[in-house]
Amino acid sequence: MAKVSLSCFFLLLALLFVNINGSEAEEKVGVYELKRGKFSVKLTNYGAVVLSVNLPDKFGKIDDVVLGFDSVKEYKNDSTYFGAIVGRVANRIGEAQFTLNGKKYKLPANDGKNTLHGGPRGYSDVVWTVKSYRPDSHITFTYHSSDGEEGFPGDLSVSVTYELIQKNKLAVIMGAKALNKATPVNLAQHTYWNLGGQASGNILSHSLQLFGSKITSVDDQLIPTGKIDPVKGTPYDFLEPRQIGSRLKELSNGYDINYVLDSGSPLHLKKAAVVHESKSGRKMELWTNKPGVQFYTGNLLHNLKGKGGFVYSQHAALCLETQGFPDSVNHPNFPSQIVNPGQIYKHIMVYRFTAH
Protein backbone atom coordinates (compact mmCIF):
# COMPACT_ATOMS: atom_id res chain seq x y z
CA MET A 1 0.00 0.00 0.00
CA ALA A 2 1.49 3.36 -1.01
CA LYS A 3 2.08 5.86 1.74
CA VAL A 4 -0.10 8.98 1.91
CA SER A 5 1.99 12.10 1.39
CA LEU A 6 1.49 15.19 3.54
CA SER A 7 2.06 17.30 0.45
CA CYS A 8 -1.36 16.16 -0.81
CA PHE A 9 -2.92 18.17 2.01
CA PHE A 10 -1.17 21.56 1.78
CA LEU A 11 -4.07 23.03 -0.18
CA LEU A 12 -6.61 21.58 2.23
CA LEU A 13 -4.76 22.97 5.24
CA ALA A 14 -4.76 26.42 3.66
CA LEU A 15 -8.53 26.13 3.34
CA LEU A 16 -8.86 25.71 7.11
CA PHE A 17 -7.76 29.23 7.88
CA VAL A 18 -9.75 31.19 5.31
CA ASN A 19 -11.89 33.58 7.36
CA ILE A 20 -11.31 31.53 10.50
CA ASN A 21 -10.78 34.50 12.84
CA GLY A 22 -13.50 36.45 14.57
CA SER A 23 -16.80 35.65 16.27
CA GLU A 24 -19.36 33.48 14.56
CA ALA A 25 -22.91 34.64 13.93
CA GLU A 26 -25.83 32.62 15.25
CA GLU A 27 -26.06 29.57 13.02
CA LYS A 28 -28.94 27.35 12.03
CA VAL A 29 -28.51 23.61 12.34
CA GLY A 30 -28.51 21.80 9.00
CA VAL A 31 -27.70 18.45 7.39
CA TYR A 32 -25.17 18.24 4.55
CA GLU A 33 -24.19 15.38 2.26
CA LEU A 34 -20.89 14.63 0.51
CA LYS A 35 -21.20 12.07 -2.26
CA ARG A 36 -19.06 10.42 -4.92
CA GLY A 37 -20.47 7.39 -6.66
CA LYS A 38 -21.72 4.89 -4.09
CA PHE A 39 -19.70 6.55 -1.28
CA SER A 40 -21.61 9.15 0.73
CA VAL A 41 -21.20 10.93 4.06
CA LYS A 42 -23.87 12.96 5.87
CA LEU A 43 -22.89 15.59 8.42
CA THR A 44 -24.40 18.31 10.56
CA ASN A 45 -22.96 21.54 11.88
CA TYR A 46 -24.24 20.61 15.35
CA GLY A 47 -21.05 19.28 16.93
CA ALA A 48 -19.54 18.92 13.42
CA VAL A 49 -21.01 15.42 13.65
CA VAL A 50 -20.65 12.62 11.10
CA LEU A 51 -24.25 11.38 10.86
CA SER A 52 -23.71 8.52 8.41
CA VAL A 53 -21.14 6.89 6.14
CA ASN A 54 -22.65 4.74 3.41
CA LEU A 55 -20.40 2.18 1.70
CA PRO A 56 -20.89 -0.82 -0.57
CA ASP A 57 -19.87 -4.26 0.64
CA LYS A 58 -18.13 -6.87 -1.54
CA PHE A 59 -21.47 -7.73 -3.16
CA GLY A 60 -22.31 -4.07 -3.89
CA LYS A 61 -24.88 -3.78 -1.08
CA ILE A 62 -24.74 -0.35 0.54
CA ASP A 63 -24.94 0.04 4.32
CA ASP A 64 -24.46 2.82 6.82
CA VAL A 65 -21.39 1.82 8.87
CA VAL A 66 -21.54 4.38 11.70
CA LEU A 67 -23.75 4.45 14.79
CA GLY A 68 -26.03 7.38 15.49
CA PHE A 69 -29.59 8.65 15.63
CA ASP A 70 -32.38 9.30 13.15
CA SER A 71 -32.71 13.03 13.91
CA VAL A 72 -30.20 15.78 14.65
CA LYS A 73 -32.29 16.76 17.68
CA GLU A 74 -31.35 13.50 19.39
CA TYR A 75 -27.66 14.41 19.26
CA LYS A 76 -28.32 17.33 21.60
CA ASN A 77 -28.89 14.90 24.48
CA ASP A 78 -26.19 12.45 23.41
CA SER A 79 -23.67 11.32 26.04
CA THR A 80 -21.83 8.94 23.71
CA TYR A 81 -20.25 11.64 21.45
CA PHE A 82 -21.54 9.79 18.35
CA GLY A 83 -19.65 11.14 15.32
CA ALA A 84 -18.65 14.42 16.94
CA ILE A 85 -15.56 16.59 17.00
CA VAL A 86 -14.52 16.72 20.66
CA GLY A 87 -12.38 19.39 22.33
CA ARG A 88 -10.93 21.88 23.25
CA VAL A 89 -9.03 18.97 24.78
CA ALA A 90 -10.24 15.50 23.87
CA ASN A 91 -9.99 12.53 26.21
CA ARG A 92 -9.41 12.95 29.94
CA ILE A 93 -7.73 15.60 32.11
CA GLY A 94 -7.00 14.23 35.57
CA GLU A 95 -8.51 16.01 38.58
CA ALA A 96 -10.09 18.47 36.09
CA GLN A 97 -7.13 20.82 36.37
CA PHE A 98 -3.74 21.73 34.96
CA THR A 99 -1.04 24.38 35.39
CA LEU A 100 0.21 26.45 32.47
CA ASN A 101 2.84 29.19 32.67
CA GLY A 102 2.56 29.20 36.46
CA LYS A 103 -1.23 29.57 36.57
CA LYS A 104 -3.57 26.81 37.71
CA TYR A 105 -6.71 26.28 35.64
CA LYS A 106 -9.66 24.50 37.23
CA LEU A 107 -12.06 22.90 34.76
CA PRO A 108 -15.61 21.60 35.21
CA ALA A 109 -15.57 17.87 35.95
CA ASN A 110 -17.90 15.68 33.87
CA ASP A 111 -16.32 12.23 34.29
CA GLY A 112 -16.18 11.62 38.00
CA LYS A 113 -13.60 14.09 39.30
CA ASN A 114 -12.01 14.42 35.86
CA THR A 115 -12.75 16.38 32.68
CA LEU A 116 -13.69 14.40 29.55
CA HIS A 117 -13.76 15.63 25.92
CA GLY A 118 -13.65 19.33 26.73
CA GLY A 119 -16.12 19.43 29.61
CA PRO A 120 -19.92 19.38 30.00
CA ARG A 121 -20.34 21.60 26.92
CA GLY A 122 -17.43 20.82 24.67
CA TYR A 123 -17.24 21.25 20.91
CA SER A 124 -19.59 18.29 20.42
CA ASP A 125 -22.40 20.43 21.88
CA VAL A 126 -22.03 23.69 19.96
CA VAL A 127 -23.31 24.86 16.58
CA TRP A 128 -20.50 25.34 14.08
CA THR A 129 -20.50 27.75 11.13
CA VAL A 130 -20.50 26.35 7.60
CA LYS A 131 -17.68 28.21 5.84
CA SER A 132 -17.41 26.23 2.61
CA TYR A 133 -19.50 23.44 1.07
CA ARG A 134 -19.34 21.47 -2.19
CA PRO A 135 -21.47 18.30 -2.21
CA ASP A 136 -19.05 16.43 -4.47
CA SER A 137 -15.97 17.53 -2.57
CA HIS A 138 -15.86 18.93 0.97
CA ILE A 139 -17.43 20.83 3.81
CA THR A 140 -15.63 23.12 6.26
CA PHE A 141 -17.04 23.98 9.70
CA THR A 142 -15.57 26.68 11.95
CA TYR A 143 -16.11 27.66 15.56
CA HIS A 144 -14.86 30.53 17.75
CA SER A 145 -14.08 29.27 21.24
CA SER A 146 -13.98 32.08 23.80
CA ASP A 147 -11.44 32.74 26.53
CA GLY A 148 -12.61 30.90 29.66
CA GLU A 149 -14.98 28.56 27.80
CA GLU A 150 -15.20 25.37 29.89
CA GLY A 151 -12.31 26.79 31.94
CA PHE A 152 -9.71 26.88 29.14
CA PRO A 153 -7.55 29.97 28.61
CA GLY A 154 -7.60 32.18 25.52
CA ASP A 155 -9.67 32.68 22.41
CA LEU A 156 -9.30 29.90 19.88
CA SER A 157 -10.39 29.73 16.25
CA VAL A 158 -11.23 26.16 15.31
CA SER A 159 -11.92 24.49 11.97
CA VAL A 160 -12.66 21.03 10.60
CA THR A 161 -12.83 20.05 6.93
CA TYR A 162 -14.35 16.77 5.78
CA GLU A 163 -13.05 16.02 2.26
CA LEU A 164 -13.86 13.19 -0.14
CA ILE A 165 -10.76 12.06 -2.02
CA GLN A 166 -11.28 9.89 -5.06
CA LYS A 167 -14.15 7.42 -4.60
CA ASN A 168 -13.06 5.71 -1.41
CA LYS A 169 -11.14 8.08 0.87
CA LEU A 170 -12.35 10.49 3.54
CA ALA A 171 -9.97 13.09 4.94
CA VAL A 172 -10.69 14.87 8.21
CA ILE A 173 -8.54 17.95 8.69
CA MET A 174 -8.79 19.69 12.05
CA GLY A 175 -7.11 23.01 12.74
CA ALA A 176 -6.98 25.63 15.46
CA LYS A 177 -5.26 28.96 16.02
CA ALA A 178 -4.57 30.45 19.46
CA LEU A 179 -5.41 34.15 19.28
CA ASN A 180 -4.22 35.69 22.54
CA LYS A 181 -3.15 33.15 25.19
CA ALA A 182 -1.29 29.87 25.33
CA THR A 183 -3.76 27.01 25.59
CA PRO A 184 -3.86 23.21 25.33
CA VAL A 185 -5.51 21.90 22.15
CA ASN A 186 -6.25 18.26 21.36
CA LEU A 187 -9.13 17.74 18.93
CA ALA A 188 -10.47 14.30 18.08
CA GLN A 189 -13.05 12.79 15.75
CA HIS A 190 -15.35 10.42 17.66
CA THR A 191 -17.18 8.30 15.08
CA TYR A 192 -18.37 4.84 16.12
CA TRP A 193 -17.67 2.30 13.34
CA ASN A 194 -19.27 -1.05 12.57
CA LEU A 195 -18.17 -2.20 9.12
CA GLY A 196 -20.89 -4.84 9.01
CA GLY A 197 -23.47 -2.06 9.14
CA GLN A 198 -24.73 0.02 12.06
CA ALA A 199 -27.54 -2.50 12.78
CA SER A 200 -25.46 -5.67 12.44
CA GLY A 201 -24.63 -6.38 16.10
CA ASN A 202 -21.23 -6.23 17.79
CA ILE A 203 -17.73 -5.71 16.41
CA LEU A 204 -15.98 -8.51 18.31
CA SER A 205 -15.39 -10.54 15.12
CA HIS A 206 -13.86 -7.57 13.29
CA SER A 207 -10.15 -8.01 12.62
CA LEU A 208 -7.93 -5.18 13.85
CA GLN A 209 -4.29 -4.28 13.34
CA LEU A 210 -2.90 -1.33 15.32
CA PHE A 211 0.48 0.15 14.42
CA GLY A 212 1.39 1.01 17.99
CA SER A 213 3.78 -1.12 20.00
CA LYS A 214 3.18 0.78 23.25
CA ILE A 215 0.29 2.23 25.27
CA THR A 216 -0.02 5.05 27.79
CA SER A 217 -1.03 2.98 30.82
CA VAL A 218 -3.92 4.21 32.96
CA ASP A 219 -5.28 3.92 36.49
CA ASP A 220 -8.76 2.69 37.44
CA GLN A 221 -10.25 6.04 36.38
CA LEU A 222 -8.62 5.77 32.93
CA ILE A 223 -6.19 8.59 33.74
CA PRO A 224 -2.65 7.99 32.45
CA THR A 225 -0.11 7.09 35.10
CA GLY A 226 2.68 8.62 33.03
CA LYS A 227 4.13 5.22 32.15
CA ILE A 228 4.47 4.09 28.53
CA ASP A 229 4.38 0.31 28.38
CA PRO A 230 4.91 -2.25 25.59
CA VAL A 231 1.89 -4.20 24.32
CA LYS A 232 3.80 -7.28 23.15
CA GLY A 233 2.20 -10.42 24.55
CA THR A 234 -0.60 -8.56 26.37
CA PRO A 235 -4.32 -8.34 25.47
CA TYR A 236 -3.48 -4.93 23.97
CA ASP A 237 -1.22 -6.47 21.33
CA PHE A 238 -2.72 -5.87 17.87
CA LEU A 239 0.62 -5.62 16.10
CA GLU A 240 -0.59 -8.47 13.92
CA PRO A 241 -4.24 -8.61 12.76
CA ARG A 242 -6.59 -10.50 15.08
CA GLN A 243 -10.23 -10.47 16.12
CA ILE A 244 -11.12 -7.74 18.59
CA GLY A 245 -12.95 -10.19 20.85
CA SER A 246 -10.18 -12.80 20.95
CA ARG A 247 -8.74 -11.61 24.27
CA LEU A 248 -11.54 -9.36 25.51
CA LYS A 249 -12.28 -11.63 28.48
CA GLU A 250 -8.87 -10.76 29.91
CA LEU A 251 -10.05 -7.17 30.37
CA SER A 252 -12.61 -5.95 32.87
CA ASN A 253 -14.87 -4.13 30.42
CA GLY A 254 -13.31 -3.73 27.00
CA TYR A 255 -10.72 -1.59 25.27
CA ASP A 256 -10.38 2.12 26.08
CA ILE A 257 -6.69 2.97 25.80
CA ASN A 258 -4.30 5.25 23.92
CA TYR A 259 -1.77 3.58 21.63
CA VAL A 260 1.58 5.23 20.97
CA LEU A 261 1.89 5.06 17.21
CA ASP A 262 5.16 3.81 15.79
CA SER A 263 6.85 6.70 14.02
CA GLY A 264 7.42 6.72 10.28
CA SER A 265 8.86 9.16 7.79
CA PRO A 266 8.19 12.83 8.68
CA LEU A 267 7.20 13.36 5.03
CA HIS A 268 4.26 10.97 5.28
CA LEU A 269 1.25 10.33 7.45
CA LYS A 270 1.60 7.37 9.81
CA LYS A 271 -0.59 4.34 9.30
CA ALA A 272 -2.54 3.97 12.54
CA ALA A 273 -4.89 1.04 12.02
CA VAL A 274 -6.55 -1.43 9.65
CA VAL A 275 -10.00 -2.85 10.40
CA HIS A 276 -11.62 -5.67 8.39
CA GLU A 277 -15.07 -7.26 8.62
CA SER A 278 -15.11 -10.61 6.83
CA LYS A 279 -18.83 -11.08 6.11
CA SER A 280 -19.19 -7.76 4.23
CA GLY A 281 -15.57 -7.72 3.08
CA ARG A 282 -15.28 -4.07 4.09
CA LYS A 283 -11.87 -2.81 5.12
CA MET A 284 -11.01 0.55 6.70
CA GLU A 285 -7.43 1.84 6.80
CA LEU A 286 -6.55 4.91 8.88
CA TRP A 287 -3.59 7.32 8.63
CA THR A 288 -2.75 10.33 10.79
CA ASN A 289 -0.10 12.92 11.67
CA LYS A 290 -0.79 12.62 15.42
CA PRO A 291 1.27 10.52 17.87
CA GLY A 292 -1.56 8.50 19.41
CA VAL A 293 -4.85 6.74 18.73
CA GLN A 294 -7.50 5.90 21.31
CA PHE A 295 -9.01 2.47 20.71
CA TYR A 296 -12.46 2.19 22.30
CA THR A 297 -14.94 -0.69 21.98
CA GLY A 298 -18.20 1.02 22.96
CA ASN A 299 -17.99 -0.29 26.50
CA LEU A 300 -20.63 2.13 27.81
CA LEU A 301 -23.26 1.37 25.17
CA HIS A 302 -26.19 -0.30 26.91
CA ASN A 303 -29.57 -0.70 25.21
CA LEU A 304 -29.36 2.65 23.44
CA LYS A 305 -31.97 3.21 20.74
CA GLY A 306 -30.28 4.30 17.52
CA LYS A 307 -31.03 4.61 13.82
CA GLY A 308 -34.15 2.89 12.58
CA GLY A 309 -35.00 1.85 16.12
CA PHE A 310 -32.06 -0.56 16.32
CA VAL A 311 -30.85 -0.98 19.89
CA TYR A 312 -27.10 -0.64 20.39
CA SER A 313 -25.61 -2.93 23.01
CA GLN A 314 -22.13 -3.03 24.51
CA HIS A 315 -19.39 -3.42 21.87
CA ALA A 316 -21.77 -2.46 19.02
CA ALA A 317 -19.00 -0.36 17.48
CA LEU A 318 -15.38 0.67 17.73
CA CYS A 319 -13.77 4.10 17.85
CA LEU A 320 -10.28 4.94 16.59
CA GLU A 321 -9.61 8.50 17.74
CA THR A 322 -6.23 9.81 16.57
CA GLN A 323 -4.96 12.36 19.07
CA GLY A 324 -2.28 13.72 21.31
CA PHE A 325 -1.77 11.66 24.46
CA PRO A 326 -4.50 11.89 27.14
CA ASP A 327 -3.84 14.17 30.12
CA SER A 328 -0.73 15.48 28.39
CA VAL A 329 -1.10 18.77 30.29
CA ASN A 330 -0.23 16.93 33.52
CA HIS A 331 2.59 14.73 32.16
CA PRO A 332 5.74 16.59 31.04
CA ASN A 333 7.11 13.39 29.48
CA PHE A 334 4.20 13.30 26.98
CA PRO A 335 4.29 15.33 23.74
CA SER A 336 3.08 18.85 24.47
CA GLN A 337 -0.38 19.96 23.38
CA ILE A 338 0.22 23.64 24.16
CA VAL A 339 -0.46 26.05 21.31
CA ASN A 340 0.95 29.56 21.77
CA PRO A 341 -0.61 32.75 20.36
CA GLY A 342 -0.22 32.88 16.61
CA GLN A 343 0.63 29.19 16.34
CA ILE A 344 -1.53 26.80 14.35
CA TYR A 345 -2.59 23.33 15.45
CA LYS A 346 -3.04 20.81 12.61
CA HIS A 347 -4.53 17.34 12.84
CA ILE A 348 -5.04 15.12 9.79
CA MET A 349 -6.89 11.82 9.49
CA VAL A 350 -7.38 9.86 6.26
CA TYR A 351 -9.68 6.85 5.97
CA ARG A 352 -9.47 4.50 2.97
CA PHE A 353 -12.38 2.12 2.43
CA THR A 354 -12.36 -1.01 0.26
CA ALA A 355 -14.44 -4.20 0.04
CA HIS A 356 -13.34 -7.60 -1.18
Structural class: mainly beta
Main pleated-sheet profile: 9 strands, antiparallel
Order of helices and strands: HEEEEHEEEEEEEEEEEEEEEEEEEEEEEE
Discrete helix count: 2
Low-confidence stretches: 14-25
Summarize the structure.
The protein has 356 residues and is mostly beta strands. Helices cover 3% and strands 40% of the residues.
How would you portray this structure in words?
The protein has helices at about 10-15, 70-75; strands at about 30-35, 40-45, 50-55, 60-65, 85, 90-95, 95-100, 105, 115, 130-135, 140-145, 155-165, 170-180, 185, 190, 205-210, 215-220, 225-230, 240-245, 255-260, 270-275, 280-290, 290-295, 305, 310, 320-325, 340, 345-355. The chain has about 350 residues and is mainly beta. The chain has a 9-stranded antiparallel sheet, covered by helices on one side. The longest helix is centred in the N-terminal third of the chain and has 7 residues, at about 10-15. It is globular and about 60 Å long.
Which helices and strands appear, and what pairs or packs with what?
Elements: H1 10-16, E1 31-36, E2 39-44, E3 49-56, E4 62-64, H2 72-75, E5 84-86, E6 92-93, E7 97-100, E8 103-106, E9 115-116, E10 129-134, E11 138-145, E12 156-165, E13 169-178, E14 183-184, E15 188-190, E16 207-210, E17 214-218, E18 224-230, E19 242-243, E20 256-260, E21 270-276, E22 282-288, E23 292-296, E24 304-305, E25 311-312, E26 319-323, E27 338-339, E28 344-355
Antiparallel strand pairs: 1-2, 2-3, 3-4, 5-15, 6-9, 7-8, 10-11, 11-12, 12-13, 13-28, 14-27, 16-19, 16-21, 17-18, 17-20, 20-23, 21-22, 22-28, 23-26, 24-25
